[in-house]
Specification:
Residues 185-209 are annotated as: Disordered. The protein is mainly alpha-helical. 76% of the residues lie in helices and 0% in strands. It folds into 4 domains: 2-60, no CATH class; 71-99 and 270-393, no CATH class; 130-208; 221-258.
Length: 394
């Protein structure tokens, strides 16, 4: 009773409604002034952070370990102590895709390093696989172009004598190996001994570009601006593809990084289409449960939040495994087992979650889970394909 009488005669400064607590029940404004000393702002900041952290501690363990628990809590009206479904899904989506982007960059950099090492080491496998004279000459031109780029990179970094000697040795080995392969194919050996000039490389590249050039898109039922836009996107995609296939090492690496960045930049936006569509699938398969579409949407949001959290943990475990394995193979094996366990937990979790929320028998739940999963798989494949095409066209 004391708490109520302490607000007698106090009105909200925003809407003049009599206050019955620290917040106005009409407009929600706090009775406390924002004009306060700095230490008051610091206290409020830490209070807010600890409150959010408290919700995280209540939300994430329940999300990962208790299938369907958060959704049932939300349906029951107990929502304050947990993070809202959309915010939870969105934050985990951004974090998981960011971590995947880092992992993809790491894998691409390692692949590029292995390519450079094999290039300088002088591998002959590409010539052994060539069955035509033109194929041998084309591979030789590409390898010599890569060596020329490596030579320029070495000169820019201070002209390391050992690397320069390796490049010269690799060039001689490539020419000798190509000459031997041409001899087996019945071509004069001198064809591989001539130097490949920059003009010849440019002419070869121009010839490849002319072959890969595309005609303007002209779809009769589309407006002119749409055809023009499709033409620009198509030419950009061909240019990026050509760079990844025929560019020098620096250009290929830049094109790969640009493609990866564009794809991961597109994926979060595609979730805004994918999740409502998944909720629509749930609505169709559980139409006789007489649930609102919003309820199915909350199920979809929590399902995807769990998937993104699992994806984040699997990616982190994979990155740690790749970093630890060269130094401690046993630790890498343990992390590999953790990855496998996390991946196995995903379908089990989603099946149990579907069973607990919709309360049907295991047989019917398993059938619907399989059919919905099959439809969702192809929907996801199409979305990823569109993301890859858009990423390649940028």
């Amino acid at each position: 009773m004391k708490e109520l009488t302490s607000f007698e005669g106090v009105q909200c400064t925003n809407c003049t409604t009599p206050l019955e607590g620290e917040y106005c029940h009409h407009c929600g404004q706090s009775m406390h002034s924002v004009l306060r000393p700095v230490h008051g702002l610091v206290e409020e900041f830490f209070e807010t952070v600890l409150h959010v952290d408290g919700r995280i501690l209540h939300t994430l363990p329940a999300l990962f370990l208790k299938p369907g628990f958060l959704t049932l809590e939300y349906f029951s009206g107990r929502r304050v102590r947990y993070i809202a479904p959309f915010r939870l899904m969105f934050v985990l989506c951004v974090l998981s895709f960011f971590t995947l982007h880092l992992a993809a960059d790491t894998i691409a950099n390692r692949a590029n390093e292995r390519h450079q090492q094999s290039l300088i080491a002088g591998s002959t496998s590409a010539f052994e696989d060539d069955d035509t004279i033109q194929g041998v000459q084309k591979d030789l031109d590409r390898k010599l172009g890569d060596l020329e780029a490596a030579r320029a990179e070495n000169a820019k970094n201070g002209a390391n004598a050992a690397i320069a000697a390796q490049i010269e040795h690799s060039e001689k080995q490539y020419r000798d190996d190509a000459r031997q392969r041409l001899g087996k194919l019945g071509s004069p050996a001198a064809a591989a001994s001539t130097a490949t000039s920059p003009q010849a490389l440019a002419a070869s590249t121009a010839s490849d570009e002319s072959k890969m050039d595309m005609n303007p898109v002209n779809i009769s039922w589309l407006p002119a601006f749409a055809n023009e836009r499709l033409t620009v996107l198509g030419k950009s995609a061909l240019k990026n593809m050509r760079t990844m296939l025929h560019g020098n090492p620096a250009e290929r690496q830049e094109a790969r990084e640009r493609l990866i960045t564009n794809i991961f930049g597109t994926l979060p936006g595609t979730m805004l289409v994918l999740i409502p569509t998944f909720a629509l699938l749930l609505t169709l398969f559980y139409i006789f449960k007489r649930r609102l579409y919003m309820e199915h949407l909350i199920v979809a949001l929590h399902s995807h939040a769990f998937i993104f959290l699992s994806l984040l943990l699997i990616t982190v475990a994979g990155m740690l495994s790749g970093w630890v394995r060269p130094h401690a193979a046993w630790a890498g094996s343990i992390l590999g087992a953790v990855e496998f366990g996390l991946a196995l937990w995903v379908p089990i979790y989603l099946l149990v979650m579907q069973k607990r929320i919709y309360r049907q028998g295991w047989a019917m739940t398993a059938v619907k889970f399989w059919v919905i999963g099959w439809c969702y798989f192809w929907l996801l494949v199409n979305v990823l394909a569109i993301a890859a095409i858009l990423g390649l066209a940028r």
